[in-house]
Amino acid sequence: xxxxxxxxxxxPPLAGEAAINIxxxxxxxxxxxxxxxxxxxxxxxxxxxxxxxxxLMAEVPAALVSVAESLxxxxxxxxxxxxxxxGEDFSETWKRDLHPMFVGPRMxxxxxxxxxxxxxxxxxxxxxxxxxxxxxSGRHPSTFLCLIMLHDLAxxxxxxxxxxxxLGSGSGILALGAALLFPEADVLGLDIDQDTIQVAEENRxxxxxxxxxxxxxxxxxxxxxxxxxxxxxxxxxxxxTALAPEIKRVLSLNxxxxxxxxxADQTAALEDVFAELGLRAIRHLGQEExxxxxxxxxxxxxxxxxxxxxxx
Length: 312
Description:
15 strands, Rossmann fold, 4-stranded antiparallel sheet, alpha/beta, globular
């Protein structure tokens, strides 16, 4: 087995998605998320071919400077290290940390290569995911909270969507999860990255959902209005704010929206944006610094706040 270069990057929570993007942009063979460190920073590990050290030590810090300026956090909050990993198969090393994850009685998320029996209830489903070069193994709090929200809506039997939209679909985990939990729904996942579309399509095949889930490299402004009864958007505050009018435009009457990717102190600002469009927060979920909101028409029931335990 050939040696390879392991890179570890720790960043503040608001820079998590940017960190993943940087690592893939500089040529990572794969990226996975480790446990947060003792300073509460998100920790990402990536694999590279040997001989890339000098290039990476120039390109990664330069990209981080730009991100720190854009998101307004001190660069001293970032930690970067590299080490040679001898005699290991990188393609298998990162898989060791990925195990089946319990979302709720109706759903488990498991790696596509997992072959041990997973105990489920009679109505339970197993969502098989290989994140590949896309964001979305389900273990990041923003994704996990979306899955919990979807699971709880399905379990409560109060929502029966037939058209579902996933914005920024990544690995396809949320679109596929919605299709499994709502068996009458046709689901569309949109992403601006063609590489992630290919990953999502492979995961669709793994879950036998080719007939009900479609992934497109397209923008929301290409969609017809008043169509989707449930919309999911696990994005950044800036992206959610910019897309809010289009989300409202394509949402059906009395439709629901799940927004995620927010830090807890960002939720009020986004709620104000959607309130101006006629949507209010009817439920909150939170984990660590992250928050997920369920939005519905103004006048719907009072908001509830729920803080799940840490990801298993």
